[in-house]
């Protein structure tokens, strides 16, 4: 869907080329991976060859991509020279990460009401649930199991392990054994995992218990303090950036 909407930009009179830079993760995926930013660049024709004002084309681009689901989209001109950052950059500092996230949402709400403010975003990343596996060492020892063996079984199940390769033409492909992706996204499967012992296969739940707890997301710090930053662009042809910042800080 995203690709189709981006390709659709080629019907715009001022657009000469579209290129993209993406981040790919190689290996087994996890339900708790942090998203990586991807970049799509649009090259306009030279100014003398443009059919309409560049600002009009940029506004049309914003309208076409604003409804793409599941992403945070920023439309901005390429910077020349050293990076200068967003015109409005509000840093929220504190100890409680959840409270910082709530304050960031309130700041975003204030900015959304200010005219000519564009591409509001923040770097708050909510924590993903964390599953802790507690091993009953006494029960495990009675079955000849160690924490290393149990940990290895979990690693194979969720991260996978390379067991062989096969060759097709002039290319080699890894053969990896791991749980299906749908099973790696639920905790109930932990109760069904079987571990081989001298007595036969034993359910993982026989020697462990599971705790689901909240976890921290990506935490940024300034001078060793937790910080969440709210950024936004401003159409400074209509209103200066310092004026918008003053309004946001009231």
Automatic annotation (TrEMBL):
Give this protein's Gene Ontology molecular function annotations. Answer: xenobiotic transmembrane transporter activity
The record ties this protein, via Pfam families, to:
ACR_tran (PF00873)
**Record InterPro entries:** AcrB_DN_DC_subdom, Acrflvin-R
Can you quote a single GO CC term? Answer: plasma membrane
What is the protein's species of origin? marine sediment metagenome
**Name of protein:** Efflux RND transporter permease subunit
């Amino acid at each position: 869907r995203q690709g189709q909407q981006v390709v659709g930009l080629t019907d715009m009179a001022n657009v000469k080329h579209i290129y993209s830079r993406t981040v790919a993760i190689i290996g087994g995926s996890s339900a708790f991976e942090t998203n990586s930013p991807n970049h799509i660049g649009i090259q306009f024709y030279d100014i003398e060859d443009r059919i309409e004002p560049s600002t009009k084309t940029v506004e049309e681009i914003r309208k076409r991509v604003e409804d793409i689901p599941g992403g945070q989209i920023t439309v901005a001109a390429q910077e020349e020279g050293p990076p200068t950052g967003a015109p409005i950059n509000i840093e929220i500092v504190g100890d409680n990460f959840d409270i910082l996230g709530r304050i960031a949402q309130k700041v975003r709400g204030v900015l959304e009401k200010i005219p000519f403010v564009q591409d509001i975003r923040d770097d708050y990343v909510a924590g993903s649930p964390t599953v802790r596996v507690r091993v009953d060492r006494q029960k495990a020892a009675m079955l000849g199991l160690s924490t290393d063996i149990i940990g290895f079984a979990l690693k194979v199940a969720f991260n996978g392990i390379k067991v062989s390769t096969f060759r097709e033409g002039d290319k080699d492909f890894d053969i990896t054994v791991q749980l299906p992706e749908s099973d790696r996204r639920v905790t109930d499967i932990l109760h069904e995992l079987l571990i081989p012992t001298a007595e036969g296969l034993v359910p993982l739940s026989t020697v462990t218990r599971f705790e689901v707890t909240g976890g921290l997301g990506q935490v940024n710090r300034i001078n060793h303090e937790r910080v969440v930053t709210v950024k936004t662009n401003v159409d400074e042809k209509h209103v200066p950036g310092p004026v918008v910042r003053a309004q946001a800080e009231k």
